[in-house]
Amino acid sequence: MRRGIGGLCFCGVLGLQGAAHAAQPEVIIDPGGAPPEVLQEITLAVGAITRLAEDQDIREVSRLRRRAWEAARAALQTQGYFSPVVTLDASDGAPGGGEFWDIAIEPGERSTVRLLGLNFTGAISGAAYEGRRTELREAWPLRSGMPFINSEWNSAKAALLDEVARKEFYFARYARTRATVDPQAAAADLEVDVDSGPPVRMGPLRVEGLKRVPESLIARYVRYDPGDPYDQDLLDAWQEALQSTTFFRGAFVTLDEPAAADAAPQGDAAAGAAGPQPAGDEPVELPVHVRVTEGPARRVSSSIGVDSDHGVRVEGLYRQNIVFGQPVWIETGAGIDPKRQRAFFDVHLPPTLAGYHDSFGVLYEHTDIEGQENSRAGLGWTRTQKRRAAGNSRVEYETQLGALVTHDKTRISGGENYEVPSWALNWKWLRRDVDAKYEPREGNLVEFGLGAGTTLDDWKPFYRTSLRAQGWWPMGQHDVLTLRGEVGKVWSDTDRLPQDFSFRTGGSRTIRGYRYQSIGIESGDAIIGAPTLAVASVEYVHYFTDLLGASVFVDAGDAAPSFSSMDWHIGYGTGLAVRTPAGPFYVDLAWSDKDRRLRLHFSLGIAF
Q1: Whole-number Å distance between alpha carbons of 360 and 406
Q2: Which tens digit of pLDDT belongs to each residue from 457-475?
Q3: Does 231 fall in a domain?
């Protein structure tokens, strides 16, 4: 097998001296049985040398040949081949007037790990830490008989030192690391000595940077008793928790190291996770140092927009951190559009260490949609949690639990009006696995919801469940295929349901071609919510450029008294998709098979 590195021909004149530059050589590599990962290392190393030929005088080409030969040998050695035979033959006639470099590789036998000496000194060598030493030895990845690869050797050493230093032994360092290679036997003997230093205990708490935020907020997250063993995972968790609040723009949690003058000399040993190492094996106590930068005390924001479902809407929001000296923040705001008017006041508690965020507040909302007018006043509590899956997974989970007490006044055009006081408990679970949150090309979303409540005047129960899902599949380099679906069901012993416990559909985010929430049960001159819902959609977007694309779609669904009585409403059409910093902006023209008319829809596409 032969492998070529394409050369770029270049000739020129060197200023007033008139010396010619060399052309980049054309390289052909015969790997001689070297595995693909080794050949890749050789190709990269030699390629870096050949590119230098464009900047060299032709008299320097022989020196570059030598460097290319050395680079090939060095690349082989990093992969465990310490007795290779590398030959480089040069000949003229390459394109552009350069040379052909024919590099032949005989890698020889790959060196493997023969012996391993994994030794510990310092306090960790005591009998109390025998179990931990055993765990460290069992976790060591380079075993006897495995290939000796330089990058894996370095990674194993770094991982070992980090594991020692993350818990209790803050001053851990290498006492010695050595790899002795026997090329004739194709064997490597490894030796790693780790000096743990003394055990470290967490001392008094020192907080820096607080101005308005009370120190009690720090104590909410940084929980330990002075004298507890140092644990870097705890420090990382405390720092992440502080940074997750709105009270701080930045937060850092570290240990305060002793001054260099108070520490024993370190010598020429490789440094570990910390600075100078104290002498002796007696426990050392270090203060926990929390440094924070507070966020803004107040923030006022507003927005104005327009879409096909709601028309022109205006919103305003006021937010304040720290209220009466307490570590809470408040949000109050209002929004208005032709179909909905809303005002609210919420109080937010700081998140817990487990990531739970509690809030409670009051709400007033008025809606007038498709002949159904509703006025609601409510008091509620919500607990949310957002978390990522383990490791480097992109999967995110969100859960929400809420309790709400409301009083609804519902007026139906041409129908019966009613009032209903009620309470309800709602739970939602969301799983998100997408390549980009606001403009996904690949992945999926799943949301499942449950709800239960009763009326407060005659104590009649009602229940609700729903499921939504959406998937994205990349088609070619730029195009995207999207499928989405939603299904829901309500069970009730009363006809006076709160408005959010029944289903209506239609509009830019559901079934295009139909007015917003115009699909449901007819009651008088109005469309009211139904006990069952089913919606499905397929859409294909083709992007002509990085910013502009066109789509075709089919939406279908219904909201009806039962699944068996559904008379599916179908909408289909085409549209434009424009990528913006806030996500894709869609303009769709859809035909409704029931209404027999075209409708224009536009919306900003954001993953739910």
Answers
A1: 14
A2: 999 999 999 999 999 999 9
A3: yes
Co-location of 332 and 432 in the same domain: no
| Residue 29 DSSP SS3 | strand
What number of other Cβ atoms are within 10 A of residue 147's Cβ? 15
CB 51 within 8 A of CB 23: no
Q: Which residue has the tokens 């009602």?
A: 462
CB–CB of 431/522 below 8 Å?
no
Helix (H, G, I), strand (E, B) or coil at 608: coil
The CA-atom distances, in angstroms, between 302 and each of 10, 135, 318, 364 are 59, 56, 9, 19
- Domain count of the fold of the chain: 4
CA dihedral sign of residues 499, 510, 483, 385: negative
Task: Report the CATH number at residue 423.
Answer: 2.40.160.50
DSSP 8-state symbol, 276: S
How distant is the alpha carbon of residue 37 from its chain centre?
30
**Domain of residue 28, residue span:** 3-106
Q: 220 in a domain, yes or no?
A: yes
Distance between CA atoms of residues 277 and 61, nearest Å: 50
Contacts of 130 (CB under 8 A, 6+ apart): none
Same domain for 85 and 123? no
Q: Which residues on adjacent β-strands are paired with residue 173?
A: 195
CB 136 within 8 A of CB 160: yes
434-455 burial, b at 16+ Cβ within 10 Å, e below that, comes to: beeeebbbebbbebebebbbbb
One domain for residues 381 and 495: yes
**Rounded Cα–Cα distance for residues 435 and 393 (Å):** 11
| Residue type at position 111 | S
Does one domain contain both 332 and 245? no
What pLDDT sits at residue 408? 96
User: Does residue 548 lie in a domain region?
Assistant: no
For 438-453, how does the pLDDT look when each residue is reduced to its tens digit (9 = 90+)?
788 899 999 999 999 9
Residue type, position 296, single letter = P
Residue 14 neighbours by CB distance under 10 Å = 10
Q: Smallest Cα–Cα separation from 534: which of 565, 575, 491?
A: 565
Distance CA 367, CA 410 (A): 10
Q: Are residues 60 and 116 in the same domain?
A: no
Domain end, chosen from 253, 275, 295, is at 295
Question: What pLDDT is recorded for position 54?
Answer: 63
Give per-residue pLDDT as tens, 53-101.
665 555 566 777 788 888 888 888 888 888 888 888 888 766 666 677 8
Distance, CA of 586 to CA of 579 (rounded, Å)? 9
Q: What are phi and psi of 328, to 5 degrees?
A: -130, 165
- Positive or negative, the CA dihedral 296, 300, 305, 307 is positive
Checking if the pLDDT of 543 tops 70, the result is yes
Task: Write the pLDDT tens digit of every residue in 20-50.
Answer: 455 677 788 877 777 887 788 888 888 877 7
Strand partners, 359: 348, 382
Over residues 1-22, the mean pLDDT reads 37
Please report whether residue 470 resides in a domain: yes
Q: Are 160 and 142 in contact (CB under 8 A)?
A: no
Domain identity same for 10 and 123:
no
